[in-house]
Design a protein that fits this description.
The protein contains nine helices and 16 strands. The chain is α/β, with parallel strands linked by helices. It folds into two domains: 282 residues, 3-Layer(aba) Sandwich (Aminopeptidase); 114 residues, Alpha-Beta Plaits, CATH 3.30.70.360. Helix 1 runs antiparallel to helix 3 and helix 3 packs across helix 9. Strand 1 and strand 2 form a beta hairpin. Strands 1-2-4-3-5-16-6-15 form an eight-stranded mixed sheet, with helices on both faces. A four-stranded antiparallel sheet has the order 10-12-8-13, with helices on one face. It has a two-stranded antiparallel sheet with strand order 7-14.
Length: 402
């Protein structure tokens, strides 16, 4: 039987696992319930399993049985992230999150269940595999650099031989039709950095602003000026996004506060522009504040690098999708996506490919559906066997290449 047909056989188990995970979303690097659930799902499989020290990761190694005695053991890595988001779920599902203020709004529950499925499929073919597979169950993708932590703890050396190829997928509640796989060679997702700004003024009575130094107005001016900076100092053909997602100041409408703070995410696609935006943004914050006689504390913190698909590995993944599902199930993406991914850490070190899998849950236009990270984001778990089969097929074919 084929991997795809075998995946169909275990689909009910994968759906049940995904829905169990969906109800127990955990945030960050410490995911004890999720880790326990994954370990239970892997129990009984012929895997070498170890857990993380600084985070609730699970690394499982499958030793293939078809390697000649004394021969080289090629290694492939498959990754699934496990963490959730601080989002209050509003989907109305009958398996809704049981953890207030936490939700699998980005589909990582599907990633985890799909990687378990790939492990089951490959374990059933252990004797035929001419090499080893590392299954990387990763916490902390959503801003915690879980991939960096797992690399530091040795995930790329888990099999004892360097990884030749690394693959992962991300489900999308919008963007792509259900079951369609999309990707592109080269830059696929943006680098992500954080800008943290505190404007320091001098508080006073709201009725007498001339006796105070109002940080709110200056912080608002900086926010607006950052957008103008992008249109006037950065090449429009090298895209940048700056979004202020958090802004805090004051306690009452008639009190001018001492300070105002905001945080922004910055997305770029080239190292040169990334460095330029950092320098421009910090200079802008300092000089706008100084022009009004205020001080500012501005920090620019690098986070994830650009997610770059190796061109040859992208072509390999696209061809695998076409062979497995049909040519109409692969959709080349004309442009990168401004989301960011810490799988970029893996792809900096290992040739590989990352792809998107459409998991739109409705019958309408996926472009109009609530996107990933929305409290109403919904994912159709009928794509689980396809995701599991694709990951397994990529591993089988890559190991065969040696």
């Amino acid at each position: 039987m084929s991997l795809l047909s075998d995946a169909g056989e275990i689909a009910p188990d994968l759906v049940a696992l995904r829905r169990e995970l969906h109800q127990i979303p955990e945030i960050g690097l410490d995911l004890p319930l999720t880790q326990r659930t994954v370990l239970s799902a892997l129990d009984g499989l012929p895997l070498e399993v170890r857990t993380g020290t600084a985070l609730s990761s699970v690394t499982a190694v499958l030793r293939g049985g078809a390697v000649p005695a004394g021969g080289t053991r090629p290694v492939v890595l498959l990754r699934g992230d496990m963490d959730a988001l601080p989002v209050a779920e509003a989907t109305g599902l009958d398996y809704v999150s049981k953890h207030a203020g936490a939700m699998h709004a980005c589909g990582h529950d599907l990633h985890t269940a799909g990687l378990v499925g790939a492990a089951r499929l490959l374990c059933a073919r252990r004797a035929e595999l001419p090499g080893d597979v590392v299954f990387m169950f990763q916490p902390g993708e959503e801003g915690w650099d879980g991939a960096g932590h797992m690399i530091a703890e040795g995930v790329l050396a888990a099999a004892g031989t360097p990884v030749l190829g690394a693959y992962g997928l991300h489900v999308m509640s919008s963007l792509l039709p259900r079951g369609v796989v999309g990707s592109r060679p080269g830059p696929l997702m943006a680098a992500s950095d954080g800008l943290f700004v505190t404007v320091q003024g001098a508080g006073g009575h709201g009725s007498r602003p001339q006796d105070a130094l109002d940080p709110v107005q200056v912080a608002c001016e900086i926010v607006t000026a950052l957008q103008t900076m992008l249109t006037r100092r950065i090449d429009t053909f090298d895209p940048v996004v700056i979004t202020v997602g958090s802004f805090h100041a004051g306690t009452r409408r008639n009190i001018i506060p001492d300070e105002a703070t905001f945080e922004a995410t910055v997305r770029t696609f080239s190292p040169a522009v990334r460095d330029r935006v950092r320098a421009y943004a910090l200079s802008l914050c300092e000089h706008v504040a100084a022009a009004h006689g205020l001080r500012v504390d501005a920090r620019y913190e690098p986070e994830y690098p650009v997610t770059v698909n190796d061109a040859a590995e992208h072509d390999f993944a696209a061809a695998t999708v076409a062979d497995l599902f049909g040519a109409d199930r692969y959709q080349p993406l004309p442009n990168p996506v401004t989301g960011a991914e810490d799988f970029s850490r893996i792809l900096e070190r290992v040739p590989g490919a990352y792809v998107f899998l459409g998991a739109h849950a409705g019958d309408g236009d996926p472009l109009e559906a609530p996107p990933n990270h929305s409290p109403r984001a919904a994912f159709d778990d009928s794509v689980l066997p396809d995701g599991a089969a694709l990951l397994a097929e990529l591993a089988v074919r890559r190991l065969a290449r040696g």
